[in-house]
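ARCHIVE CARD
CATEGORY: sequence design from structure
SOURCE FIELD: tokenized fold
FIELD CONTENT:
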């Protein structure tokens, strides 16, 4: 008796499943088609991303090789184009190359490109913090104290790998301005920070011993 009931229940379940597929076949076809389309679109997107990455790499390599070999025509435009692609690898490299080789000297433009990297490019946190630090380093020769602190705020207010670098930059900034008490405070913060870069901590200790010892 129990076996017969179990067979009946099983047949009932199977019939319900079959009826479900029959009654909802249109919706199921649309759903499966949508899933296949999404998967297909995803793989096309990833393939285009890969091809675009290779193309950017080629553009960057050609531009830098031409510059080193003496062919400096259009180098700025080529690298600016790469920056505007907002690629997390080659856009930062393009900006650093422009700055390090004095190809682009307009402060406003350089800061605009830094902001593109910081605010509009999908960078990993530590890479983004590095870009912020480099922006602060670039601006430290000519901006006021509050402006420099605003630039570095995303680093000094978090447990970033670049936090000790930011403190050292601020220490050097205030020391150069002859605000030695503020400089001493930032050098001291490096020694108290558990995550401080070892080389930065050593340099901060040297500065304190050499320039602030009584």
């Amino acid at each position: 008796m129990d076996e017969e009931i179990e067979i009946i229940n099983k047949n009932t379940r199977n019939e319900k499943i079959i009826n479900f597929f029959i009654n909802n076949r249109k919706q199921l076809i649309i759903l499966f088609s949508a899933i296949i389309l999404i998967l297909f679109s995803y793989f096309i997107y990833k393939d285009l991303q890969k091809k675009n990455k290779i193309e950017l790499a080629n553009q960057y390599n050609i531009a830098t090789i031409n510059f080193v070999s003496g062919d400096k025509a259009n180098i700025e435009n080529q690298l600016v184009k790469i920056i505007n692609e907002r690629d997390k690898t080659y856009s930062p490299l393009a900006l650093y190359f422009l700055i390090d080789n004095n190809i682009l000297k307009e402060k406003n433009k350089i800061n605009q490109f830094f902001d593109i990297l910081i605010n509009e490019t999908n960078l990993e946190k530590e890479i983004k913090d590095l870009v912020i630090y480099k922006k602060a380093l670039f601006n430290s020769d000519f901006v006021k104290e509050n402006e420099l602190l605003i630039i570095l705020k995303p680093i000094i207010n978090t447990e970033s790998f670049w936090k000790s670098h930011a403190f050292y930059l601020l220490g050097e900034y205030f020391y150069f301005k002859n605000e030695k008490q503020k400089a001493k405070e930032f050098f001291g913060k490096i020694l108290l920070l558990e995550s401080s870069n070892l080389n930065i901590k050593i340099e901060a200790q040297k500065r304190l011993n050499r320039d602030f010892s009584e």
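CARD ANNOTATION: The mean pLDDT is 86. Residues 143-214 form one domain.
SHELF: design records, drawer C
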